[in-house]
Design a protein that fits this description.
The chain has 297 residues and is an alpha/beta fold. Helix content is 40%, strand content 16%. The relative contact order is 0.16. It binds NADPH dihydro-nicotinamide-adenine-dinucleotide phosphate, dtdp-4-keto-L-rhamnose (TDO) and magnesium ion. InterPro entries: dTDP_dehydrorham_reduct, NAD(P)-bd_dom_sf, RmlD-like-bd. Belongs to the dTDP-4-dehydrorhamnose reductase family. Catalyzes the reduction of dTDP-6-deoxy-L-lyxo-4-hexulose to yield dTDP-L-rhamnose.
Length: 297
């Protein structure tokens, strides 16, 4: 099976490359040959890859910067993925698109299910919601996997930021009133690959539509930071004390949902897939980072 993935060095594409097993070839497509901001580049790059399945993983992910770069965020997160889905449809192959918890406003008091109303709080969330709509419009048979709070040994993420800050600080203030599901990009990779196999081997039976795909269990950003430092300290890596603060005490350009929890039951029922417990996954990634020469590079 050949899987074309958008993006070259992102957390999810790098994890998919690492986790693809025997008999699976990953073709990572990014700039310059596939630029989501250059719609004319998309169909030719995908056609040249001759994929059996397309995974739309690339995105504009700088949540705060997006507030001042609305046009760029919508080009990369909405129009681009729409063109990716249209190109996949034209090639007659299934498309899996990755979306986010930030399509919700966080006012629900329980984990979000797929049918809950969306109401993004910021430009990033609005652009990703427009991406979901563009993908479904181009290919009603698309699979959209919403994930959240992604970290990995690769790229930029909250876990690596915590380890970096701990190198020079004894205490860090971290918000304790935003809760969600921390998710390892390596677990996302395993799940995406399993869904891709089903779409390829049994296209008529594989369920389509939106599915939530996050690490099992919930916590706040402060809980995540504490878990990172506990795991790091156990391995002799950097750690800091966590001061649990309120969102109001950590002002940012973009508002974030207070409740980002996503319910994974639909993915479990449709595909038999549930991601591992987030605390175990954090330990595995932190151990790997600390074992590296520079855990924050
Ligand atoms: N990170 C997170 O916490 C979360 C992410 N998601 C979603 O998961 C998906 C994967 O995210 P993640 O791997 O963390 O993202 P990263 O920020 O790690 O990587 C983004 C990727 O997008 C690529 N990209 C950006 N702009 C363009 C463009 N114009 N043309 C082509 N490629 C481009 C980057 O390319 P290059 O390598 O060249 O820079 C990079 O490969 C995204 O859809 C994101 O919205 C959902 C929830 C949480
Ligand atoms: C660095 C830092 C952040 N924070 C807060 C700010 C914010 O509320 C929260 C998370 O900060 P970040 O900016 O790292 O996370 P953020 O960029 O909001 O992460 C989001 O990225 C996009 C791409 C998604 O799709 C989401 O699922 C989510 O993962 O932690 C602290 O409280 N203390 C700190 O020292
Ligand atoms: Mg960020």
């Amino acid at each position: 099976m050949r899987i074309a993935v958008t993006g070259k060095a992102g957390q999810v594409v790098t994890s998919i490359i690492e986790r693809a097993g025997a008999g699976v070839e990953i073709i990572a497509l990014g700039r310059p040959e596939l630029d989501l901001g250059d719609l004319a580049s998309i169909a030719p790059a995908l056609a040249a890859a001759r994929p059996d399945v397309v995974v739309s993983a690339a995105a504009y992910t700088a949540v705060d910067r997006a507030e001042g770069e609305e046009e760029a965020a919508f080009a990369v997160n909405a129009a681009g993925p729409g063109a990716v889905a249209a190109a996949a449809r034209a090639l007659g192959v299934p498309v899996i698109h990755i979306s986010t918890d930030y399509v919700f406003d966080g006012t629900k008091t329980a984990p979000y299910v797929e049918s809950d109303p969306v109401a993004p709080l910021g430009v990033y969330g609005r652009s990703k919601l427009a991406g979901e709509e563009a993908v479904i419009a181009a290919d009603p048979d698309a699979v959209i996997l919403r994930t959240a709070w992604v970290y990995s040994p690769f790229g930029a993420n909250f876990v690596k930021t915590m380890l970096r800050l701990a190198q020079t600080r004894e205490e860090l203030g971290v918000v304790a009133d935003q809760i969600g599901n921390p998710t390892s990009a390596l677990d996302i990779a395993d799940t995406v690959l399993a869904v891709a196999h089903r779409l390829h081997s049994a296209p008529d039976e594989a369920p389509r539509g939106i599915f939530h795909m996050t690490g099992n269990g919930e916590g706040s950003w402060a809980d995540l930071a504490e878990a990172v430092f506990a795991a790091s300290a156990a391995q002799g890596g950097p750690w800091a004390r966590v001061r649990r603060i309120a969102t109001a005490d950590y002002p940012t350009p973009a508002a974030r949902p207070a409740n980002s929890r996503l319910c994974g039951d639909r993915l479990a029922e449709a595909y038999g897939l549930r991601l591992p417990a987030w605390r175990d996954a954090v330990k595995a990634t932190v151990a790997r980072l600390v074992a590296q020469k520079d855990p924050v590079a």
